Amino acid sequence: MMHQRMIEPVSGNGDAGLELAMQVGRLGRWELDIGSGQLSCDSRWYAIMGRNPDSPITTIEQFRPFIHPDDVARVTEVTETITRLDAHNQDYGVEFRILRPDGETRWVRSLASLSQEGDGMPRHATGFIMDITETVRLREDLQQTCRALVTANARLAMQKSRLERLSLTDGLTGIANRRCFDMELGRAIARMRATGAIFTVALIDIDHFKRFNDGYGHVAGDIALKAVAGALKTAARRKHDLAARYGGEEFALLLPGCDCPAAVFAAISQSIKALDIRHEHSPVAPVLTVSIGGVTVHAPVESGRSKLLRRCDEALYSAKHAGRDRFVMRELGTPQRQDRNTAA
């Protein structure tokens, strides 16, 4: 018959420090005779388990009911574990849950070292166990907090992105606003200076829009602005094209690397007239029309965004002065500069 042996506290001058460390660290001690399977544990081990040492545990099988069902297999697979540890010259270490008699589930960490006989085979395991429930709870709380922070950061990033999009979008028409256009124009100028990539920029004005608003009201005016914006967005269909509302009834268009901007402007003029928005107060046409002033930059120029837009504004003024419902194009950065005044 196998007799239970309660492990006594370590004693002697050499072990006084170890005993003190075990007391302070609240470590329970256990020993396993690998050959016989006898398990011996000290009083602190029983205290951690919430068990009465008067009902001793002498085998791994008797210990199994103390362990959470999900952790039993990996904690009590003695033969496989010892073989693996011995083969890799490793110490034993595992975290698992225990079930106390009062119904509480707690986390413990068990650490052990194998000792060998003369034949080199592991014969004995000596280990310590500690309650790490609070550590695990803090770790889980930290993980939960980290997950919450990740979620919150993702939400904030989405909100920031949405606010950024809103800050670059015209509230009425839904296309880019002046801020967005100025940013993209600045990038186009920078690309031109760095790589020589040509681009065209244009200002587009609805002809006699004040008369339209006065005659039909601001609600009709807003509807007309949305319709014109839709036509411009359709025209700016390439990946880096940009249509924007520049202010009031004035729009802007950016066409990087466009081979034939005149064709784009002509198509815009025709598409807006095809909207067939009645404008009986216009001396130009019975429907809504636009005037366009465009500049194509062929080579790096010293002028910045403001000067370039002034050139566009000059071209737009020329289109209006020539009778409206037309586009005027100018070229920059090439010796053969010429103006093109074309009625739509």
Automatic annotation (TrEMBL):
One of the GO biological process terms: cell adhesion involved in single-species biofilm formation
Coiled-coil spans in chain: none
Pfam families named in the record: GGDEF (PF00990), PAS_3 (PF08447)
GO MF term set: diguanylate cyclase activity
Lineage: Bacteria, Pseudomonadati, Pseudomonadota, Alphaproteobacteria, Sphingomonadales
PROSITE patterns xref list: GGDEF (PS50887), PAC (PS50113)
UniProt domain GGDEF: residue ranges: 197-332
Cellular component, GO annotation: plasma membrane
SMART domains: GGDEF, PAC
Catalytic activity: 2 GTP = 3',3'-c-di-GMP + 2 diphosphate
Xref: Gene3D superfamilies: 2.10.70.100, 3.30.70.270, PAS domain
InterPro entries hit by this protein: Diguanylate_Cyclase, GGDEF_dom, Nucleotide_cyclase, PAC, PAS, PAS-assoc_C, PAS-like_dom_sf, PAS_fold_3
EC number annotated for this UniProt entry: 2.7.7.65
Protein's name in the database: diguanylate cyclase
Organism: Croceibacterium xixiisoli
Domain PAC: 92-144
Annotated PANTHER family: DIGUANYLATE CYCLASE DGCM-RELATED, REGULATORY COMPONENTS OF SENSORY TRANSDUCTION SYSTEM
Group of enzyme by EC: transferase
Residue ranges crossing the lipid bilayer per the database entry: none
